[in-house]
Amino acid sequence: MSKEQERFNTQYSNEKEINIGSKGIFDFFKSEFAKSEGSLEIKVHLFELTKLTSLSLTKCPKLTTDNCSLIKLTSLNSLKINNCSEFKKIFDLTALPKLKKLSIVGCSALITFDYSSTGLIDLEISDCSQINHITGFSKLPNLTTLSLNCSNTSIEELSINLCLEIKTLNCSNNHKLTNLDASNCSKLEFLDCTNNKLTILDLRYCSESIDVKYSPSLIIARKKKILIVGRTGGGKSTLANVLTNSNEFKESAYAINETKYFRKKEFEWNEDDKTKDNKEDNFRVVDTIGVGDTKLSTENTLFKIADGILLMPEGISHVLFVINGRFTKEEIDTFNLIKESLFKSDILRYVTIVRSN
């Protein structure tokens, strides 16, 4: 080990946060750092800093993935790489098992991002002008915050539809981005896609309460989820056939369910007539087993209805409670049973009672 490395280890072995490129570290190690085009060149290794949890690398033009000692920092949970002009690709993130936050800013040589990490929850990629390919978000299962601000990139399509834990997405100022698929992101709370050329934003199976910032000309594709409930023989399946313009749902006028457990179908409504608020709506309808089936106990019937609800983990847009004729005491008891057993107290805001004849 060189004397310089020993001095570095002695000085920083107990540090939890280091900023490579800061004036302090340069003053201490000015003999071990060489000026290169106005920036700093690292001449020491970091892998013995086992307690290091936060590292910032700024203006390190010689930093590359090859022979990079960063991958030995197994305690690292935050890494910032700023304005490192030769940094072309990310190292294997699986070598940093505790890494939770990664920020890559102003790395003009970075071309692609497709890496795996089970721990990463916060990712920022900003001002990386050469990047043209960002994929592999399915390999980041716990990602909750994603910020992409790469105004001069050639990225045209972006899909995060398998980021099931993501809550915040900022992809503003990506001027060539035309297609964004955020479907299935049921926990997404905030989305900023302003200042780009998006023509279609796919938010199917996302929460209805997302705070979305977007261009007025953008068409948002959503999928609304309709649950049909009621007593056996009340006309639930007939209503489902009318909505879907099909004959796939079976109805029985007797106390034996033709709908065994549940049946689902997706359909479009007024496909050629875009709504005034630039939203293009698709639907999923789920017809559940009827209450009152003579072959099942009430408890088992409720379990089967719950199975149908689980088909819509992102939430239910509307509940249709179907009755056959008058709203009798039996219908009231059935409605209260389903409401109190399976839904939250505010479900009444989303319920419509439908008479089948």
Describe the structure.
- InterPro entries: G_AIG1, GIMA/IAN/Toc, LRR_dom_sf, P-loop_NTPase.
- The protein is α/β, with parallel strands linked by helices and 357 residues long.
- It has 2 domains: 171 residues, Ribonuclease Inhibitor (Leucine-rich repeat, LRR (right-handed beta-alpha superhelix)); 132 residues, P-loop containing nucleotide triphosphate hydrolases (Rossmann fold).
- Helix content is 14%, strand content 27%.
- Strands 1-4-5-6-8-10-12-14-16 form a 9-stranded parallel beta sheet, with no helix packed on it.
- The chain is elongated.
- The termini are far apart.
- The relative contact order is 0.07.
- About 7% of the residues have low confidence.
What's a quick, concise take on this entry?
The chain has 357 residues and is an alpha/beta fold. The chain is built from five helices and 21 strands. The chain has helices spanning 3-12, 23-28, 236-244, 298-309, 329-342, and strands spanning 17-20, 34-36, 39-41, 54-58, 78-82, 101-105, 112-113, 122-126, 133-134, 145-149, 157-159, 168-170, 179-181, 190-192, 200-202, 211-213, 219-230, 262-268, 279-288, 318-323, 351-355.
